Amino acid sequence: MKHVMNSQLSFLNCANTCMLLASSPVFRRHHLLIRSLGVGVEGAIHHHHHHTYSSTNMQDLNSVEVDAESVIRAITPAFDLSKHKGQSGNIAVIGGCREYTGAPYFAAISALKIGADLSHVFCTKDAAPVIKSYSPELIVHPILEESYSVREEDKKIISSKVLAEVDKWIERFDCLVIGPGLGRDPFLLDCVSEIMRHARQSNIPIVIDGDGLFLVTNNLDLVSGYALAVLTPNFNEYKRLVQKVLSSEVNDQDATQQLLSLAKQIGGVTILKKGKSDLISDGETVKSVSIYGSPRRCGGQGDILSGSVAVFLSWARQLTADPNSNLSSKNPTVLGCIAGSAILRKAASLAFSNKKRSTVTGDIIECLGKSVEDVCPAA
Amino acid sequence: MKHVMNSQLSFLNCANTCMLLASSPVFRRHHLLIRSLGVGVEGAIHHHHHHTYSSTNMQDLNSVEVDAESVIRAITPAFDLSKHKGQSGNIAVIGGCREYTGAPYFAAISALKIGADLSHVFCTKDAAPVIKSYSPELIVHPILEESYSVREEDKKIISSKVLAEVDKWIERFDCLVIGPGLGRDPFLLDCVSEIMRHARQSNIPIVIDGDGLFLVTNNLDLVSGYALAVLTPNFNEYKRLVQKVLSSEVNDQDATQQLLSLAKQIGGVTILKKGKSDLISDGETVKSVSIYGSPRRCGGQGDILSGSVAVFLSWARQLTADPNSNLSSKNPTVLGCIAGSAILRKAASLAFSNKKRSTVTGDIIECLGKSVEDVCPAA
Q1: Helix (H) or strand (E) segment spanning residue B375
Q2: Which of A129, A301, A356 sits opposite B373 (nearest CB)?
Q3: ipTM of predicted assembly, 2 dp
Q4: Residue of B nearest to A364 (CA)
Q5: d(Cα B114, Cα B347) in Å, to the nearest integer?
Q6: Taken in order A251, A254, A259, A262, is the CA torsion positive or negative?
Q7: Cβ of B374 under 8 Å from any chain A Cβ?
Q8: In angstroms, rounded to a whole number, what is the distance separating the alpha carbons of residues B317 and B230?
Q9: Contact assessment for residue B192 and residue B94, using Cβ atoms and an 8 Å cutoff
Q10: How far apart are CA B265 and CA B263, in angstroms?
Q11: Of A18, A309, B228, B310, which has the fewest Cβ atoms less than 10 A away?
Q12: Distance of residue B75 Cα from the nearest chain A Cα, in angstroms
């Protein structure tokens, strides 16, 4: 197994010797990394091999608990006054229908609070005014349609109109989040399937959650073999995925191996299995993030995660795309999942320590900024 | 009369001897109970028998003032990291029409602030965008219809569509709150009657307030004999209920006996009679909650109460359903009413001490978290 940390270290050594760069923002970032990692780096990687646990509640630990904070520091871009709007992330959430408006809002606003420059929502006409009313910070496109508002004979033309609207924008996005509050209307899901195909043709990463997972579980070809796809199933969504893909039941005793098989079977997509510990696999390795979060299980936390993973994934991809970067051998989707998981957990923990049992998702979103800042100070 | 406290004590003694469990969350909860009850337990139960009061403003006290805080501690679930979203409560409010949107919002958001994981609202199409815009935390279903938007000949088909929408969800709910901001449109109330019948068939508890009480008072068969129904009448709603069921006027001199008769007459539903002291009866016993609240009578406090009772009732039902629990002989609807009444009073008192005459319902909702935390710390 490769460890993210190994590449971090060579990365650091390199930075350390390039003293001519001492005043550049890149150097300052690396310098921060050196200070924060200190001498305890090796100790920060915990190997757990073939432990046996009697309790079925415990996740097996054949995975490697990563030093998620180091990952966050490595992929979060340094500020640079010469950058333009959009260069630190332009995210789009595809979701929001007559029934659901909170979920796409949570995902989209979380992307901004993590540090993206622009955050869009593509939703139905009914959902748009409501989502807009939650926040003037979001760009909300009322373009999706549900069956109830479309006559059978108009479906083809409306479907192509929806696609044309999305196509106007799609090349500008660094990542799409597909699913929060999408609903399960068949016509709408057909349009979203097309959007996913277009995103894939344009090599745009996609994070799939909620009803997007319902769609993908029943149409695996939409993501199969697409290395820039991330699935973020919760307990029940994971169960359906395992049943469909592996034709078996969830195995808690050997969760790591099962997740690895599942990701491999879907052609190397990255899966973030949410749970007491989050497990992340791209079919090659399995990482785990177990930072203490919150025991509160209020709805909407998954939406924060999908928006956060989208931003970190975009940032990681900028670095891994650079052949000179020491992260170039790393999978940006895995790095994005590690960072997103850890930041949500930290924010949830901060919110819970303040609001306790009454913590709601909005309280956690308010803590995203501090949880990023604590790990990776802006200046 | 049985006292909730008695079962609490045996419950505590048991926990106290099971030292092997000392590190479990359940033990920690029990341990907290022991500490909080201390030696003053017996003193916490006040018996008042056959006092006579000259003032008609004073409630008679043939009821037993309960130690509501101990009830709250006994029924509030301990946190457990292995739990999934929904396991600590999934509540639905049926209410919200063209005229009223605040009431269902207050009830639904209160459920989340008490500690439920998910809170839904089923309302009319006009009310939905407004209720959604109050908070992205709620899941708002725009499915109810009022007469003005339905042609006579379409009523049957629309009614069955409404029912089908609710039926998709109903089994997942731990409790329904029926009535906040429901309005009195006859067609809408017919649909809601059907929803109540379905809830009853599925053994889902229902808390009935506001216009739901108007409906039920005129159609007693909807709740009669259903032990999982809770009615939460205010002064006027109680008056109409007494007139209809007992064919008499409200008797302040013997409020306890009259409430007992009323609950018995409706076949053992639980009634929470709101007043200076809240009186609670299931036709077997009468409990009273007189914790100091607030003298402010701003509209909407009843909605907080209904949402809070729904959550506590759901939690109490999980415990009372367990034959090994020391609460197994208790009525979960009574426990839920006691806890909801006490928490609203505490939150109202906190809000009033800060906002005084300008206190509004939203201020009280903001204090729900602290009022639960003060009684039953989350960790």
Answers
A1: helix B368-375
A2: A356
A3: 0.84
A4: B137
A5: 11
A6: negative
A7: no
A8: 13
A9: yes
A10: 5
A11: A18
A12: 14
Picking from B108, B128, B127, B126, the residue whose alpha carbon sits closest to that of residue B118 is: B108
Q: Is B273 exposed, middle or buried (0-12, 13-18, 19+ CB in 10 A)?
A: buried
For residue B57, pLDDT over 80 is answered with no
In chain B, which residues have their Cβ closer than 8 Å to the Cβ of A295?
A: 79-81, 83, 378
- Chain B segment 350-369 residues within 8 A of A by beta carbon are 368-369
Q: Which residue has the higher pLDDT, B87 or A30?
A: B87
> Which stretches within chain A are classed as H helix?
4-17, 25-37, 68-75, 102-114, 127-134, 155-170, 186-201, 211-218, 235-246, 255-265, 301-320, 332-355, 361-366, 368-375
pLDDT at A15 over 50: no
| Cα of B42 to nearest chain A Cα, Å | 29
Distance CA B349, CA B294 (A): 5
**Is residue B118 less than 8 Å (CB to CB) from chain A?**
yes
Contacts of B185 by beta carbon, 8 Å cutoff, 6+ apart: B97, B146, B147, B148
Q: Structure tokens of B321?
A: 């359903």
Is the CB of residue A130 less than 8 Å from the CB of residue A99? Answer: no
Rounded-to-integer distance, Cα B73 and Cα B319, Å? 12
DSSP string, B157-223: HHHHHHHHHHHHHHTT-SEEEE-TT----HHHHHHHHHHHHHHHHTT--EEE-THHHHHHHH-GGGT
Among all chains, which residue has been given the structure tokens 């989350």? B378
Residue-wise pLDDT for B83-142, tens only, equals: 889 999 999 999 999 999 999 999 999 999 999 999 999 999 999 999 999 999 999 999
SS in 3 state form for A67-114? CHHHHHHHHCCCCCCCCCCCCCCEEEEECCCCCCCHHHHHHHHHHHHH
Instruction: Read off the tokens for A111.
Output: 């992307």
Helix H or strand E encompassing A176: strand A175-178
CB atoms within 10 A of CB B68: 27
